[in-house]
Amino acid sequence: MAELMSNQTKPLVLVVEDEAALATMLRYNLEKQGFRVDEAGDGQEALTRISEAKPDLVLLDWMLPVMSGIEVCRQIRRRPITRDLPVIMVTARTEDGDAVRGLNTGADDYITKPFNMDALLARMRALLRRSGGVSAKGMLEFHDIVMDLSAHRVQRNSRPIHLGPTEFRLLEFLMQHPRRVFSREELLDAVWGPDIHVEPRTVDVHIRRLRKSINGPDELDLVRTVRAAGYALDSETI
């Protein structure tokens, strides 16, 4: 997992979770990735923490003591100072109606337990960039590909590569997690987002477009297909 590429103050994430083991796991992984972490064990404490030190993003459990995550999200959206605060709902509830309800309440994103930490981090980074919490400026490099996030440019062997918006986001995500295999569903969540409903085969179409764009004559195909598993950015052929 790539570390946050920002010289600004580390973003503050409020983890609102009453399961101590999960809260500890989230703190460990988030701090490892360059975030500052605050915690709250119930809904009322979460609102108090937000009032004392406004975070850059809230990871909000649905089922909480004292006050539900849904009500916490409602109150966050009602307050002018926190109206635009990024909120990701984290819950064990998996029915489509629950996801819609969470998003309609004002959550920016929705992820179900158990979740993939890399996918969660990618969603957080994308949401923070959209909200201005993390600068998108920086460089990503893998093998002979260089990606300039601030200029929105890609080069391979100093050759300009022209990518569509989706291929750019797909390559950015893969370069942040080199050599790791992601399923189509994980790529959909990380690149398209959970609120955009597209077929998994859509990933295959964009992978083909990405391959066509980044792989020139006699150049190594850096996008590895793993049968029944997914795709990875990898310079080693198998």
Helix/strand order: EHEHEHEHEHEEEEHHHEE
**Number of helical runs?**
8
Helical percentage: 25-40%
Shape from CA axes? Answer: elongated
Rg, Å, rounded: 19 Å
Second-tier CATH architecture of the largest domain: 3-Layer(aba) Sandwich
Strand order of the largest sheet: 2-1-3-4-5
The fourth-level CATH homologous superfamily of the largest domain is Response regulator
Task: Please give the number of β-strands.
Answer: 11
Residues in β-strands, percent: 15-25%
Give the SSE layout.
Elements: E1 12-16, H1 20-32, E2 36-40, H2 43-52, E3 57-61, H3 69-78, E4 87-91, H4 96-105, E5 109-112, H5 117-131, E6 139-142, E7 145-148, E8 153-156, E9 159-161, H6 165-176, H7 184-192, H8 201-214, E10 223-226, E11 230-233
Parallel strand pairs: 1-2, 1-3, 3-4, 4-5
Antiparallel strand pairs: 6-7, 7-8, 8-9, 10-11
Q: Which features characterize this protein?
A:
238 residues, alpha/beta, Rossmann fold, Arc Repressor Mutant, subunit A, 2 domains, five-stranded parallel sheet, four-stranded antiparallel sheet, 11 strands, 20% strand, elongated, disordered N terminus
Structure description:
The chain has helices at 20-32, 43-52, 69-78, 96-105, 117-131, 165-176, 184-192, 201-214; strands spanning 12-16, 36-40, 57-61, 87-91, 109-112, 139-142, 145-148, 153-156, 159-161, 223-226, 230-233. It is of the alpha/beta class and 238 residues long. It folds into 2 domains: 12-131, Response regulator (Rossmann fold); 139-233, Orthogonal Bundle (Arc Repressor Mutant, subunit A). The strands form 3 sheets. It has a 5-stranded parallel sheet, sandwiched between helices. A 4-stranded antiparallel sheet has the order 6-7-8-9, with helices on one face. It has a two-stranded antiparallel ribbon with strand order 10-11. A hairpin with a 2-residue loop joins strand 6 and strand 7 (145-148). Helix 5 runs parallel beside helix 7 (184-192), helix 6 crosses helix 7 and helix 6 (165-176) crosses helix 8 (201-214). The chain is elongated, with a radius of gyration of 19 Å.
